[in-house]
Every structure is written in C-alpha cells, then in structure tokens.
Write a structure and sequence with these properties.
The chain has nine helices and eight strands. The protein has about 270 residues and is of the alpha/beta class. It has a single domain, classed as 3-Layer(aba) Sandwich (Rossmann fold). The chain is globular.
Length: about 270
C-alpha cells in the first residue's frame, strides 16, 4: 500500500499534540478527525487498535490529537483549558491550521468527517452542532445522552488518592480505576478535566447536530443504552450495536471500523 507518514500540525495550541497521518497514496477524499475518550490518547484509542491504519488504507487523511492532560499533550494548570467549550475552540483552530475548507466552498473533499469515542463522541456531538459548515458526517462510538463525568464524585476520588478512603459510587470508582491503568496518565490533570466538565455538563438537546450520524456501541455497554434518545434528537442517525462488546473493547471491533469507513464514504 506504500508507506504512511505523519507530521505535526504547525500553528495550533502548542500544548496539544496534533498529528496528521497521510494516506499511502495521494487522495482527494475528505479528511477525518479522530477524538479519543477520557483517560485515553490518540495512540491508545486509535493507533494501537488499528483505526489509523484502516482509515489511511482507505485513502483518508487522518487528524489526531491528544486532549489536554492526555497522551503527549501538556497538562495545563488552568481549568479553562479542559472545558468542553475551550476544547471545541481548539478543534476549530486545528482544522483551520490543517487547511480544512468549509463544505460550501465547492472544493473537492472540503469539510471534515469526525469519529469520536466516549468523551470524544460528546465533544464531536457539540462540535458538529456548532460548526455545521465544516462537518460532513460523524461516527460516534460509545455515546449516551447522560454524562458520567458530570456525575463523577470528585471529592470521593480526591479522598481516595489522599488516604485510600473507599469510593461508594461504582461509576466514579470505575472511571478512576481506568484513569490509573495507564502509567503515563496525570491523574490530577484528569480530575481537573472532570471538574471543568462538571461545570459544562453534556445536555445533548441544547445543541443538536443535523448532519448524518452513525451511533455505535457494544450491546453490553451500560453507558450507551440511551443511544436511541440521541438518534431521536438527531433525526438523521443510524444505530449499530456490536454483539458482546462493552464500553472497553468496542473500539477494537473490525465490524465497527468497516461500518465507519463505509458510512463516511457515502
């Protein structure tokens, strides 16, 4: 297929690790922006699971970033850096710096497609709703109409990290355990993101994207059981359930990859 290459995007927020992954052969197809989940990274969510290779093999340029406090991005002290609204502004600047043209400008391959997972799906939903002139289609993996990070018991998590006090809320305990699984994660930066998200909780009906959506989740994913509510709000959504998959392992599904590539090619 030829050798794939990647390069840093210049001009973006210097604290964010942003890479452009080029397809094996020159292509006029629309680029794809990948948004990873909480306590993950572009490498863990998309590269190690084979997504970047599958998309570039399909002729797509792929833009990835590590969210603030994740992966190779810096962990700012200012809480505002972690807020969804600030991240959406950073995403817009990233696309402009990557020379993504609005859909209405008539250029071949203009605009961008987005694939998000978990927190990345929440960010994609809101970005698509607020930037419809840039976003063509989106695939949202592991989404839900609720917001587990907004319900996160921040005080209990901080007590646990300080003195080992047990966490009563199972969702909080599970999210903190996941955050600590990756040795390079800055757990305190991730808790700052949680606090920022609690100030801007996800309310999907407040900003609804109207481009075509593919909503994908494992049928064992308890966080994604409200997918039909998102589909109803959208009015332009298809749903794909992955048999036997959970929130943790749905992203590795070959069926998921194939469905996303086919959906975005329409």
């Amino acid at each position: 297929m030829g050798r794939h290459s990647d390069h840093l995007v210049e001009g973006t927020n210097p604290g964010l690790n942003v890479l452009v992954h080029e397809p094996a052969s020159p292509s006029a197809l629309r680029p794809i922006l990948l948004l990873h989940g909480f306590a993950s990274s572009a490498r863990l969510n998309w590269e190690d699971s084979g997504w970047i290779r599958a998309l570039t093999d399909a002729g797509r340029k792929v833009v990835t970033l590590d969210l603030p406090g994740h992966g190779s991005s810096t962990a700012p002290e200012e809480m505002d850096s972690y807020s969804p609204s600030r991240i959406r502004a950073d995403l817009l600047q990233i696309l402009l710096d990557a020379h993504i043209h609005p859909l209405a400008d008539g250029q071949p391959g203009s605009g961008v497609d987005i694939i998000g997972y978990s927190l990345g799906s929440r960010l994609a939903w809101e970005f698509g709703a607020t930037q419809p002139e840039l976003v063509h289609r989106m695939v949202l993996g592991g989404p839900g109409s609720g917001d587990p990070l907004a319900a996160f018991d921040l005080a209990a998590a901080q007590r646990f990290l300080t003195d080992g006090s047990p966490i009563a809320d199972e969702s909080t305990s599970s999210l903190l355990r996941m955050a600590r699984l990756v040795p390079t994660n800055d757990v305190f930066a991730l808790l700052t993101m949680v606090e920022a998200i609690k100030r801007e909780p996800f309310v999907p009906r407040d900003a609804i994207p109207h481009m075509p959506l593919l909503l994908v989740a494992g049928d064992k994913d308890e966080r994604a059981q409200t997918i039909p509510e998102l589909a109803e709000l959208s009015g332009h959504a298809e749903i794909l359930w992955l048999p036997g998959r959970t929130h943790t392992n749905a992203v590795t599904s070959r069926t998921f990859k194939s469905a996303a590539i086919n959906f975005l090619a329409a």
